[in-house]
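ARCHIVE CARD
CATEGORY: sequence design from structure
SOURCE FIELD: tokenized fold
FIELD CONTENT:
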């Protein structure tokens, strides 16, 4: 006779017994789930040849993972009495092969099912990958930087362009074996020197890139228009004041153009105030005094 579980093993919570204390511990046992009487078998092939050590995975209809297995030396796989009856997707993959298409299956109790899964070669099999992070000179991650990869012997030919994500990360795959230059650009930053790398088939290279902030680009500009009764004031005097505590410190004067437009450049970060006025010359009559 074979010993089998009828009610499965359960446990209580951890408890403490104090001196002369009477403790009561109840347990509610659960029935052992019935073993599903289903059978799914099959073979994974590529170019009509079996693929050993391929991974075969079963998903439910919401693409949630259920179970997986590995094929044997003849590409065979099996799920015996582990999957309840129902509808599933089956997919597979292997080294140097793409992920297969989804195979939609329906398992029934007492009704074995066999599936042949075909894999196609990975088109990136003999190509390389480079990835890394773009940072500034103090280590902050930089998003939206353009990463440019150029041929080593023909720097005018761009092999790839990508953009760093919000974490400063970039990834370029599918590079043909060979030598390349890599650089990065971002508004307000300079790249010290483009870097060289030599990629071989199946290589995965990590290369972090650093950009240096251009100090002049850190500063801002202030512009606007001077109006009087909604009409431009030509050649008005515009004064720029820096606010220091409660004081207004005059730092620049500009004359607006004929359209009343003014522009202050290379303004360092801080608090400012604009003041404006328009001056003219008063005409006077000549008077002779005897």
């Amino acid at each position: 006779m074979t010993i089998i579980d009828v009610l499965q093993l359960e446990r209580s919570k951890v408890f403490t017994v104090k001196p002369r204390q009477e403790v009561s511990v109840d347990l509610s046992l659960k029935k052992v789930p019935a073993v599903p009487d289903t059978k799914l078998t099959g073979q994974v092939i590529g170019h009509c040849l079996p693929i050993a050590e391929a991974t075969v995975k079963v998903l439910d209809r919401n693409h949630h993972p259920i179970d997986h297995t590995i094929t044997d030396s003849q590409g065979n796989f099996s799920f015996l009495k582990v999957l309840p009856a129902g509808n599933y997707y089956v997919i597979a993959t292997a080294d140097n092969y793409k992920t297969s298409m989804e195979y939609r299956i329906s398992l029934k109790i007492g009704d074995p099912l066999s599936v042949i899964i075909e894999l196609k070669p990975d088109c990136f099999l003999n190509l390389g990958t480079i990835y890394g992070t773009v940072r500034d000179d103090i280590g902050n991650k930089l998003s939206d930087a353009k990463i440019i990869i150029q041929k080593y012997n023909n720097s005018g030919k761009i092999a790839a362009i990508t953009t760093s994500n919000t974490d400063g990360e970039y990834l370029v795959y599918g590079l043909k074996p060979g030598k390349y230059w890599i650089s990065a650009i971002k508004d307000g930053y300079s790249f010290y020197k483009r870097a060289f790398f030599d990629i071989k088939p199946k290589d995965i290279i990590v290369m972090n890139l650093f950009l240096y902030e251009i100090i002049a680009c850190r500063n801002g500009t202030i512009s606007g228009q001077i109006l009087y009764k909604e009409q431009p004031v030509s050649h008005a005097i515009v004064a720029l004041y820096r606010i220091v505590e409660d004081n207004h410190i005059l730092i620049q004067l500009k004359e607006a153009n004929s359209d009343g437009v003014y522009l202050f450049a290379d303004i360092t970060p801080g608090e400012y105030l604009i003041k404006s006025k328009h001056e003219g010359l008063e005409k006077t009559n000549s008077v002779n005094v005897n």
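CARD ANNOTATION: DSSP finds one helix and 26 strands in the chain. Helices lie at 215-218.
SHELF: design records, drawer C
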